[in-house]
Amino acid sequence: MGAREVDLPDVVPGSGLPERVTIWEVGARDGLQNESAVVPVGVKLEFLDRMADAGSTVLEATSFVHPKWVPQLADAEELLAGLEKRPGVTYPVLVPNERGLDRALAAGVREIAIFASATETFANRNLNRTLDEQFAMFDPVVARARAEGLAVRGYVSMCFGDPWEGPVAREQVVVVGERLLDMGCSQLSLGDTIGVATPGQVKALLAAFDSVEPLAVHFHDTYGQALANTYAALECGVTTVDASAGGLGGCPYAESATGNLATEDLVWMLDGLGIAHGVDLDKLADTSKWMAGVLGRPSPSNVVRALRG
Amino acid sequence: MGAREVDLPDVVPGSGLPERVTIWEVGARDGLQNESAVVPVGVKLEFLDRMADAGSTVLEATSFVHPKWVPQLADAEELLAGLEKRPGVTYPVLVPNERGLDRALAAGVREIAIFASATETFANRNLNRTLDEQFAMFDPVVARARAEGLAVRGYVSMCFGDPWEGPVAREQVVVVGERLLDMGCSQLSLGDTIGVATPGQVKALLAAFDSVEPLAVHFHDTYGQALANTYAALECGVTTVDASAGGLGGCPYAESATGNLATEDLVWMLDGLGIAHGVDLDKLADTSKWMAGVLGRPSPSNVVRALRG
User: Fold this and answer.
1) CB contacts, 8 Å: B12 with chain A
2) Could you give the ipTM of this predicted complex?
3) Which residues form a coiled coil (chains A, B) (predicted)?
């Protein structure tokens, strides 16, 4: 069966929008990290393989955070040892500190990401560090990674609102982001970790940076705003968008659906806008349907439920 | 408890966006018409009263379609007889034909809506008429309603895709829409009845009309595109947006969530964009939580689940 039950309206390229977007697939890391179920490594490997087969070019594979903190990803070494890497696909992994970098290098990783906070309070809560201490922790990680020839992405979390601090000043996000770029990060992923942002705030934050070129966006659908915010970011020229296959990491029954933007919902929009991305919606939806079965609950993605419910 | 668990980021008015938007609340009609449960008239009256109390200014109250086709709204006369109309609030009702108009006039209705199709096939399936016969049916309805001093809205359904015809040509939607305006409709609600549209298609359709002034938009979240499409419409200058409180009419567990855009998700975006609309999110979310309890299932609205889950 085709992915779509009806033909789509004619593609209408949006004026001023990018011709091509890279979908940075975070399902295996950010998604599974936030699922209550611990998924067997074989399932993860099948997931990554199916996503590559569907056309994903960036598959964030896992995290070298201490297993005590994220038991869902305790199999990072085993996963990478079993991973059949495809040509043209990168498999970045999250690295929290120098010990994590050691493990990543030993596993042959060629691209890493670090996870920074835009706010003092979340740095303290998530990393047990001040903002300055956060940078001091990341400095040697990025320096060593770059010396080893690795690409480094910098996540900036809590870019719009913070559960403890409330609204986050754009200037503060820019200061943190520029610091990560100066450190050697080649890309920033600006995250609306609690999902409160709306399109005007997105445009204003992107405009506050010197250049949109190194900026990616990472939206959560907690308040249903993720795709509208993504569209606003595309209008600003952003060409890398984070998404999670089938909305992995959010539960449709949860009191607070805090999941990432579902890759399928993003793909539907990009297809309609005539923006190239390389991901096949049919294979993607099949993969998410299969994964929802593994997790024992429906996908929170509207597209997956509509096409494969 | 406040509606928001965290403070929102600073409001950032979008450049070129309207300063004020009218939310055309369709929950009581389009929402409840598509719920499997038949809701008692007392619940409907409480819903409308709570929505007016929350600040809604347009509450589409019911439909005078034959009860055989829509048993959920068979209590239209009883509802209108029991309705305590608030100053500054209009209560339009859907009228399918002259018989429906007779009933509406007898019930003291001052504003009606007619429901037209943009496509030949859906006109045939939904109304058992050709497009020409559809106009012939509506002509005397609109003429008499206008002669009685009533305002008339024209719904145009299947504006982007049609389950049988596939993509719908913009020119066809414009021809149907202009015909309804010529007939005497003061507003068109352009509906993406099957939820397939994306923002570029929305902008292209709106631009195909001579003026955006009489145009409202009505999006469904079947593929998660409703709010992104709404944002695109706001960028085109649209100032009336249809929405359904708590996403009434869609079920979060359904195989295909075909519901309208949830009013709460729209309000969240409008608040963040600094666009005035008059609806209090706290009271709105309380109302939707209560209604979800009546219906015995959670609301499909992300905002309602996040705030009142």
Assistant:
1) 198, 200-201, 203-204
2) 0.94
3) none
